[in-house]
């Protein structure tokens, strides 16, 4: 089915009408259906380079289906799924399984991330080449949740991924500096008497790894940057010509460690929420290009892992459904980023880092029809009703946030219509048709 979208505002700010047919943008001026996008901002489909979809192994928290449905609700058309599943995504078999679940359900393109070390154990490299050469064609490798701490293993991983233009995504956390850490180390942690996670535990690993990446000549990506000092290290590395990229999460752009005072475990996350100075430095770094992308670090956990004492609670927060709202609040409405910048940091550049095709030239004839229409003038109270994944550990419940995703279109078919996700059977059916069309094209 072809769709004509009229009166949309493109990322550039220009008003435009366009048509999508058989999975791509076309020049056609008529279609089976028309969406009037008056007042709506069109963006290329969002690409999340960092999400935890929990399948296989932790299906009570999330599955590929529920996580990709949450992604569609948030305006995403592609999601990179972190490797800390059970079994771990450290073999060709597991990554192929995750990828094909995504293809079957059809809510988003799911690209598995491969583990750097076997079982995330930190002692032996995983079958990186086998995952890279598998049907999943893995290009991003990460032990996220854990830091690749051994410098020799990190060096070897960088050497390995270099051979096929892959990238190692590091969870930068010096483990010896963060034993039992519960929150950011600073004034608030001293007052509360909680063990601190110092900024230097992140910054020292980033400093080491940019030097290793320079030595090897390989691509390095730093997950969830959270401190002003990390921004300084990345800025230095980029000025030196090192092939490093960095991401920041929506929550690190908006929330601070002051929120820990209430001991509400929805605010417990790794890396921890930092100081206001850090938030300001992260916003400025995203605006000036030192930080390349936004990624959600969507980390679903079951109620029992969050409805307990602060010390016992798991680290992590869900973020797919709220990501664009929080980005609008933290960096668009504050004047740090334009919508064209958002298209770059939340679609084009993450796709490029992950070597995902089809996101280079959105809205141009022939390119893949992955897009989202949002109403930036909407404002509503975020609640469990706003969520489409399985878990409810969102830090934004009860908070008023701007913006609303009205339509998400993945490979030319709708996954979100009139502000809500489309029925799973319809999406799976559309995905089958779309796959057939692209095979015959
Ligand atoms: N971010 C988190 O606090 N938790 C993540 C792991 C991670 O991203 O490091 C998780 O898997 O739950
Ligand atoms: Zn992490
Ligand atoms: Zn993560």
UniProtKB/TrEMBL annotation:
The keyword Metal-binding applies. InterPro entries: DHOase, DHOase/Allantoinase_Hydrolase, DHOase_cat, Dihydroorotase_CS, Metal-dep_hydrolase_composite, Metal_Hydrolase. It catalyses: (S)-dihydroorotate + H2O = N-carbamoyl-L-aspartate + H(+). Zn(2+) 1 binds at residues 50, 52, 144, 297. Binds 2 Zn(2+) ions per subunit. One of its GO terms (cellular component) is cytoplasm. GO terms for molecular function: allantoinase activity; dihydroorotase activity; zinc ion binding. Substrate binds at residues 52-54, 84, 270, 301, 315-316. Signal peptide: none annotated. Belongs to the metallo-dependent hydrolases superfamily. DHOase family. Class I DHOase subfamily. This is Dihydroorotase.
């Amino acid at each position: 089915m072809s769709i004509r979208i009229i009166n949309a505002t493109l990322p550039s700010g220009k008003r435009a009408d366009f048509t999508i047919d058989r999975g791509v943008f076309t020049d056609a001026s008529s279609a089976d259906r028309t969406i009037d996008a008056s007042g709506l901002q069109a963006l290329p489909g969002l690409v999340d380079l960092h999400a935890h979809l929990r399948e296989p192994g932790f299906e009570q928290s999330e599955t590929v289906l529920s996580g990709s449905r949450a992604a569609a609700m948030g305006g995403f058309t592609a999601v990179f799924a972190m490797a800390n599943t059970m079994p771990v995504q450290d073999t060709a078999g597991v990554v192929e399984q995750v990828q094909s679940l995504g293809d079957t359900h059809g809510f988003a393109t799911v690209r598995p991330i491969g583990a750097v070390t076997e079982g995330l154990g930190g002692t032996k490299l995983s079958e990186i080449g086998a995952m890279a050469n598998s049907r999943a064609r893995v290009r991003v490798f990460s032990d996220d949740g854990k830091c690749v701490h051994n410098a020799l293993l990190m060096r070897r991983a960088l050497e390995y991924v270099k051979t096929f233009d892959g990238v190692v995504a590091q969870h930068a956390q010096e483990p010896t500096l963060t034993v039992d850490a519960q929150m950011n180390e600073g004034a608030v942690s001293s007052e509360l008497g909680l063990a601190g996670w110092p900024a230097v535990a992140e910054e020292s690993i980033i400093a080491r790894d940019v030097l290793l990446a320079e030595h090897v000549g390989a691509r390095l990506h730093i997950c969830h940057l959270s401190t002003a000092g990390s921004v300084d290290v990345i800025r230095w590395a980029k000025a030196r010509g090192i092939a490093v990229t960095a991401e920041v999460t929506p929550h690190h752009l908006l929330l601070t460690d002051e929120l820990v005072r209430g001991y509400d475990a929805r605010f417990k996350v790794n890396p921890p929420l930092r100081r206001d100075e850090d938030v300001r430095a992260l916003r400025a770094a995203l605006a000036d290009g030192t930080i390349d992308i936004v990624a959600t670090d969507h980390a679903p956990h079951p109620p029992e892992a969050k409805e307990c004492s602060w010390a016992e609670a798991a680290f992590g927060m869900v973020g797919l459904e709220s990501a664009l709202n929080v980005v609008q609040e933290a960096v668009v409405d504050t004047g740090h980023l334009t919508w064209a910048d958002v298209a770059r940091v939340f679609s084009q550049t993450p796709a490029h880092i992950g070597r995902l095709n089809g996101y280079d030239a959105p809205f141009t004839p022939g390119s893949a029809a992955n897009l989202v229409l949002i109403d930036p003038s909407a404002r509503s109270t975020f609640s469990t009703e706003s969520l489409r994944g399985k878990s409810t550990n969102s830090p934004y419940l009860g908070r008023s946030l701007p913006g609303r995703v009205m339509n998400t279109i993945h490979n030319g078919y709708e996954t979100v219509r009139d502000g809500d996700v489309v029925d799973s059977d319809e999406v799976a059916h559309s995905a089958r048709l779309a796959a057939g069309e692209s095979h015959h094209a």
